[in-house]
Amino acid sequence: MNKCNHETITLAIESSCDETAAAVLTGGREILSSVIATQIPVHQKYGGVVPEIASRQHIIGIMPVIDEALHKADVALADIDQVAVTYGPGLVGALLVGVSAAKALAFSLNVPLIGVNHLEGHIFANFLSHPALEPPFMALVVSGGHTSLVDVRGYNDFSLMGETRDDAAGEAFDKIARVMKLPYPGGPEIDKLAQRGNPCAIDFPQALSEEGNYEFSFSGLKSAVLNYLHNAEQKREEVNLPDVAASFQRAVVEVLTHKAIGATKRAERNALVLAGGVAANSNLEKRLRQETGREGLKFYFPTRELCTDNAAMIACRGYYQAQAGKFSDLWLNAVPGLSLTSTQS
Ligand code: KG4
Ligand code: ZN
């Protein structure tokens, strides 16, 4: 690649959970390459992610994935201007693999290092899918580990409107799927099964649904579904699994939709942005599209491959942090419980 007059080239690494990923971005929004080595088949036989196995898989995958990202982008290591990496939240051993690789690269290339919050990365996936999108907007972040409503006031200015008190939305999908003996990860499986079911067949509870409350709780819903399945089993009644999947999904989707629209209006934003792995849920996307349309709000969500974990979103977030001079030093460490707190530019 010709280094004259080029825009900033960011190499990013993501290893917070069960995907080893690397990406190369030019400027803030143009993806030159995005490579994801998924570990899902490795963890599937255990019904969920095994942290120790995840760390080892990251160690095996990290260098080949970085090499492939550079190769696909037609970029040499010497062309890299900065290295961004997810340093939390996530599994500590998994995060450490990416953080160590990023620090070694930044040090040896003598380029800046940028530690990125994974959740902010999910929000920034939308800038890659929608080149004209700009803050301010409301973001609903729904992943395997988090469910949050974030008022994005600027590229480096966020405020948390509410989050889950217990299980994350994706976690609820995965746990219910496990009891229904569906493969890991359960979200896409429930989504598929629900297409054949009646969403109004069973009236599962929707917690904290009062007006003006932007917190979530999915543990009561999870218990209600588990009780329903156990009771049916004890009475030897046949269960219509597509109906259970569809009714459970409706309960999750309705709460998310209701609160996201409420928060968007409360913060007087005219756009709602969906982010995180659960953004791939077909019903959630449909309901949010309907309700934002009804309220005259704009609605954005990332392309499917940018919804779930990837490094392109980390590169994008890293780019905007660097624009604001927010770099990390070589003491950067993994922070498994990193939260999305207010940050001012
Ligand atoms: O953002 P992500 O890739 O990883 C985390 O940062 O957690 O999200 C993964 C989560 C899993 O819980 C998975 O079951 C869920 O996203 N998910 C879905 C769908 N696709 C992925 N949940 C519901 N419907 C889907 N179509
Ligand atoms: Zn994620």
How would you describe this structure to a colleague?
With 345 residues, the chain is α/β, with parallel strands linked by helices. It has 2 domains: 9-123 and 307-323, 2-Layer Sandwich (Nucleotidyltransferase, domain 5), CATH 3.30.420; 135-301, ATPase, nucleotide binding domain (Nucleotidyltransferase, domain 5), CATH 3.30.420.40. It is 43% helix and 19% strand. The chain contains 11 helices and 10 strands. Strands 3-2-1-4-5 form a 5-stranded mixed β-sheet, with helices on both faces. A 5-stranded mixed β-sheet has the order 8-7-6-9-10, sandwiched between helices. A hairpin with a 4-residue loop joins strand 1 (9-14) and strand 2. Helix 5 crosses helix 6 (186-194). The two termini are 33 Å apart. Residues 118, 122, 143, 276-277, 309 line the site of zinc ion.
Within CATH, the superfamily of the largest domain carries the name ATPase, nucleotide binding domain
Oligomeric status: single chain
- Give the helix tally: 11
Distance between the termini: 33 Å
Going across the biggest sheet, name each strand in turn. Answer: 3-2-1-4-5
Largest sheet: 5 strands, mixed
Alpha carbon gyration radius = 20 Å
- Count of domains: 2
What CATH architecture label of the largest domain applies?
Answer: 2-Layer Sandwich
Category from helices, strands and their pairing: alpha/beta
How much helix, percentage-wise, in residues?
40-55%
- Let me know the average pLDDT: 94
